[in-house]
Specification:
By secondary structure, the chain is mainly beta. It folds into three domains: 2-62, Roll (SH3 type barrels); 65-124, OB fold (Dihydrolipoamide Acetyltransferase, E2P), CATH 2.40.50; 128-185, Nucleic acid-binding proteins (OB fold (Dihydrolipoamide Acetyltransferase, E2P), Beta Barrel). Strands 1-6-2-3-4-5 form a six-stranded antiparallel beta sheet, with no helix packed on it. The chain has a five-stranded antiparallel beta sheet with strand order 9-8-7-10-11. It has a five-stranded antiparallel beta sheet with strand order 14-13-12-15-16, with no helix packed on it. It has one helix and 16 strands. It has one helix at 95-102, and strands at residues 2-3, 12-15, 18-28, 36-43, 49-55, 59-62, 65-76, 79-84, 90-94, 110-116, 119-124, 128-136, 150-155, 160-164, 172-176, 182-185.
Length: 186
């Protein structure tokens, strides 16, 4: 069992039979009444984020998590296919559950698949990835009053990010996977 005072960002808990990942939490001690914990939780099954408040000291079933390295093979319709590089066992995860993370993954990339209670649930990415620009408009000098500015660019995985005007098709960019923002040229 895990108590509210043992919460950590990234932990998984079981609330009423549903597994959630703790994104944020805050202990609140009002002047009047009992203490409570405000949380922001992501449901593992579909990725929905909810706000939930618990009484201080409330207990939950701790969820066993495990990370395995796998190779992303391909995406077909509503499923993403992965392969364990050690045993060559293939695994299928619904795209809806991991769509945010898949924006930054190319075919045949190695990723870490998060298992919750021996069921694949999510993929974990590094904080930044290097991807090639597949399409963007040419940036013309003098387009902005200050000389800076951004334009949209489509990356090789299909994700769209805002980039500086000097970025061209074929450039390899470093992108933050948490915020989806351009960091630098790689």
């Amino acid at each position: 069992m895990i108590s509210t005072n043992q919460f950590k960002n990234g932990n998984h808990i079981d609330v009423d039979g549903t597994v959630f990942k703790i994104l944020e939490f805050q202990h609140v001690k009002p002047g009047k009444g009992g203490a409570f914990v405000r949380t922001k939780l992501r449901r593992s099954s579909d990725g929905n984020v909810i706000d939930r408040t618990f009484r201080a000291g409330e207990k939950f079933r701790s969820v066993r998590t495990e990370v395995r390295r796998m190779q992303f093979l391909y995406r077909d319709g509503g499923d993403a296919h992965f392969m364990d590089t050690g045993s060559y066992e293939q695994l299928v995860i619904p795209v809806a559950a991991i769509s945010d993370a898949l924006r930054w993954v190319k075919d045949s990339d190695e990723v870490e698949v998060l298992y919750i209670d021996d069921q694949p649930a999510d993929i974990q990415l590094p904080s930044a990835v290097d991807l090639k620009v597949s399409q963007t408009e040419p940036g013309l000098r003098g387009d902005t009053a200050s000389g800076g500015g951004t334009k949209p660019a489509t990356l090789e995985t299909g994700a769209s990010v805002q980039v500086p005007l000097f970025v061209d098709v074929g450039d390899v960019l470093r992108v933050d996977t948490r915020s989806g923002e351009y960091i630098s040229r790689a």
